[in-house]
Task: structure prediction
Amino acid sequence: MLQNVEDDLDVLQEMKGILESTNSDGTSLVTLLQAVQRHFGYLPREAMIEVARAKGVSRAAVFGVASFYNQFRMIPPGKHPVKMCMGTACHIKGGNAILKVWETKLGIREGEVTEDRLYSLDRVACVGCCAMAPVAVVGEEVHGNMIPVTVDGIMLAVELAEKRGREQEEQGPENQEEAAQ
Ligand code: FES
Result:
């Protein structure tokens, strides 16, 4: 489940479930933080405070671990999170160059979110599709054999999907039904 949560009460409620399902006592801090990030898509502040409480360690210790590992993000990801694989196969096949292309096209560095919150950019470890290296995952979609121009194609597809979504919203549900008939 990937979800952005602004409301502290929602975070607390959902943290209860995460802590119960992960057996927080016997789980390492890193594993627990990974579970929290899998659920929310990032580490909300309130969630990290809950982790500190559950593990009986200081907040500073939890924030320290979260900021030490670059797999953790403290801000919500963009609507279309871009994850560039930096596993060995992707690294050898030029993943780093593709990451730079993403940075240039999106106007952000890895770990950041675009101002319109449409994209975030992160580097990740092997996503398990090494035969297709270099690989980028955008949202839920895996894109293999990436070359610089593929980035433009993906961004264009996202823009078109966004435009279509906005048009459908403007039309409202009744007009959409009529159009479908
Ligand atoms: S190293 Fe990139 S998919 Fe395995």
User: Anything to note?
Assistant: Residues 85, 87-90, 126-130, 133, 135 surround FE2/S2 (inorganic) cluster (CB under 6 Å). The radius of gyration is 19 Å. The domain at 8-68 is CATH 1.10.10 (Arc Repressor Mutant, subunit A).
